[in-house]
User: Fold Signal peptide-containing protein from Gimesia algae.
Amino acid sequence: MLQKVMVYIAMLFFAALIAGLYGMIHDQISYTVSPEYFTRFKFQQFGLPWGEQSQRLGAAVVGFMATWWMGVLVSLPLGLFSFRFPTPDMMARKLAIAFLIVILVALLTGLLGLGIAMIVINAETIDGSLRLVRPNVQDPIQFVRVGFMHNASYLGGLLGLIAGIIYLCRTSTQ
Assistant:
């Protein structure tokens, strides 16, 4: 049992690291779509005034800071469901796969959110979303689209957690 507890604890750290790396990649995509989402919003939100001078690095740091904790949050329940496996090795393998499922679902959901926003948010529809745009933003359409992507990614994390739990429950009975 002690070995399983050690796997559980190790996964919390692993999940935080992987989620942070996911956030770094996610925010590089976001930055490509709307640099202003970072220069007019995220750098201030995360207290990174130096991000203006090194915007790509700043976006990566924001991505890590915004998501590492989601890895821990998701890993807590996944880890509890993984105690169902008979050995620590099997527990670790299944838990890693479940976490990969979470990451993939979050990524796909975020990209789907961006894709939908690319279709739905345009010059004719932006008026309904202008309240979401920070002052001095030159391209509010792209700003709002990235906001949709970010919100969809958090929804994807929740959906991925559910998918990961289902995976763990189904594979523990086989």
Observations:
- The CA atoms of residues 102 and 162 lie 8 Å apart.
- The mean pLDDT is 94.
